[in-house]
Design a protein that fits this description.
15 helices; 0% strand; globular
Length: 339
């Protein structure tokens, strides 16, 4: 906790007024940012179908994740302009990297571990519904860290979005049974881990937004730093994990084909887009993207698999559209001080 407080001191003092940029919720989102949002929504929605078709079951998960992190680093370095790359190299410091990217990367790593524990001990419906609380925690930490307030209408838009996410989760969980575990196991190894993971997700997203908007840390540089930290954590885990044993036994590229590269590259592109969206649109709008992507997945499943969307999906569609419209149309407005 002491580390977090020390890192966030600049945004809780008078220096905030000098460093703070106008929050995305008070500005009209530019066409370029809308382009990032749409691309990320399509990528999120299409990724499950692409992965299912292109990655064989024999492929070791850790190998594909590590390859994706390497691809993100290569893409981010390629997208950096040569002049900016040299400037960043001269100004880069280890402390700055750990402050801006190391802490969020570590938080995301812990969050993913908690989600894995929770997913094994909860039915998919309960897991998906509780996982949507990260939207509220993102809005809370955005206010706490960046002092970005939400208007009453925007809060209403968030409520509509969470309701849509719950409906989509119900549709996804229809027909799936519960885990059948006892109540203590469900509480301590299911409900509590996913709620803690939601809190961590909101905190990490807000920290990334703070680093990008207040500290002016390049989103591409953050992608490189977080990918390196994440890869090091993943490599360390292979010494004891089953995936590590499989890699040592069968080799890193076991089960790979030429098609395996497709979802890895699309996922890497998604990682770049996440950084851009967080930097320019904020972590709350990223939450809108995640829920909207569920509708894209349902549409693509209907087109390519002939699986029609559930009635819950049809109910959720107008809620998502309404929530996005309300959130964008009614930003929080600062009250003018009377002279």
């Amino acid at each position: 906790m002491a580390v977090i407080k020390r890192n966030l001191e600049p945004v809780t003092s008078s220096e905030l007024k000098r460093n703070e940029v106008p929050p995305p919720t008070t500005d009209k989102v530019s066409g370029k940012v809308w382009f990032y949002l749409v691309l990320l929504t399509i990528q999120y929605g299409a990724q499950p179908l692409i992965s299912k078709r292109c990655i064989k079951r024999e492929v070791i998960v850790t190998s594909s994740v590590l390859a994706c992190e390497v691809a993100k680093v290569v893409c981010a370095l390629f997208l950096m302009k040569e002049g900016n790359l040299k400037k960043m190299y001269k100004e880069w410091t280890l402390i700055g990297a750990l402050t801006a990217s190391g802490l969020p990367a570590a938080i995301y790593a812990l969050q993913n571990s908690l989600l894995q524990i929770s997913y094994k001990n909860l039915d998919s419906l309960t897991f998906s519904m509780l996982n949507q609380t990260k939207l509220l925690f993102t809005a809370f930490f955005t206010y706490l860290i960046l002092r970005q307030k939400q208007s009453v209408q925007q809060i209403g838009g968030l409520v509509l979005l969470i309701l849509a996410a719950v409906l989509l989760s119900v549709g996804e969980g229809t027909g799936k049974g519960s885990s059948g575990s006892d109540s203590d196991l469900i509480l301590f190894h299911g409900i509590i881990p996913v709620l803690v993971a939601s809190v961590l997700s909101g905190l990490a997203s807000s920290l990334c937004q703070w680093a990008s908007q207040v500290k002016k840390h390049s989103s591409y540089l953050m992608t490189v730093e977080m990918s390196v930290v994440g890869s090091l954590c993943l490599l360390a885990s292979t010494y004891q994990s089953p995936d590590g044993e499989q890699i040592r036994k069968h080799g890193f590229f076991y089960g790979w084909t030429a098609f395996t590269l497709i979802p890895i590259l699309t996922n890497a592109a998604g990682g770049i887009l996440v950084g851009l969206v967080t930097a320019h649109a904020g972590g709350v709008r990223k939450g809108f993207v995640i829920v909207s992507a569920l509708l894209v997945t349902a549409l693509l499943q209907f087109i390519f698999d002939g699986r029609p969307p559930s009635i819950y999906c049809l109910w959720a569609l107008p809620l998502v559209i309404s929530s996005i419209s309300i959130y964008q149309k009614y930003p929080y407005k600062l009250k003018k001080k009377s002279s």
